[in-house]
Write a structure and sequence with these properties.
Blueprint (H helix, E strand, L loop, with lengths): L2 E8 L6 H13 L5 E5 L13 H11 L6 E3 L2 H4 L6 H11 L3 E8 H5 L7 H4 L4 E5 L11 H10 L13 E4 L8 H10 L10 H7 L7
Parallel strand pairs: 1-2, 1-4, 2-3, 4-5, 5-6
Length: about 210
């Protein structure tokens, strides 16, 4: 039986119920023994985040406490310089050479993948899983990434897992976003329905706009 490891990277700024739903769905759909949630350190594709990498990592650890198979990984938080997915995946592969990496991104990230560092090689580093986003239409993917997606697409089952393939995560669409969560926290709203760490986020005051 093939060894597998789930990978779910992101800013988690901050972590919310949608992130946890995706991680659980990835674990359960592909029968993965472990899914690593990897908060971004210094992201190359966006402005530096207001909240420190270490704080976001601590919140992820808190949010997944007691969740079977979900593990927080600090490798990008500890890394100097930009956090490239290519470096993260090749590092994990070097540590576990006999393991197939099953890595998850959002559909919006898939559409922008040609802007990523060494993106063609990324597609060969494991089995890519894509989570749908509200309003995103997979059949409108165009150009190189549209061709690669169509060529590599397989069903989302443990038996279909293979290096260089792509599957769509069969998860329910979630409308929760970190942007909305930050906006609500800035206003001082109750966000307990959106994240398991609502009290900790509110107490930190890190997203609160001073009136």
């Amino acid at each position: 039986m093939m060894n597998t490891l789930g990978i779910y990277g992101g800013s988690f700024d901050p972590v919310h119920n949608g992130h946890l739903a995706f991680a659980r769905c990835l674990r359960d759909t592909f029968a993965l023994p472990e899914v690593r949630l990897i908060p971004t350190g210094l992201p190359p594709h966006r402005a530096e985040l207001r909240v420190s990498p270490q704080q976001r990592l601590d919140w992820v650890r808190l949010a997944i406490a007691g969740e079977p198979g979900l593990v927080a990984d600090d490798r990008e938080v500890q890394r100097d310089g930009y956090s490239y997915t290519f470096d993260t995946l090749t590092g994990l592969q070097a540590e576990q050479p006999d393991t197939l990496l099953v890595w998850l991104i959002g559909a919006d990230s898939l559409a922008n993948l040609p802007r990523w560092h060494r993106w063609r090689e990324l597609l060969e580093l494991g089995h890519l899983v894509v989570a749908a986003r509200p309003g995103f239409e997979f059949d409108r993917l165009s150009g190189e990434i549209g061709r690669e997606y169509a060529k590599r697409l397989v069903t989302a089952t443990p038996e279909s897992l293979a290096r260089g393939k792509i599957s769509r995560l069969p998860s329910p669409l979630t409308t929760i976003s970190s942007t909305e969560l930050r906006e609500r926290l800035a206003r001082g709203d109750d966000v307990s329905a959106l994240t398991p760490i609502a009290d900790e986020l509110a107490a930190s005051g890190l997203y609160r706009t001073t009136p």
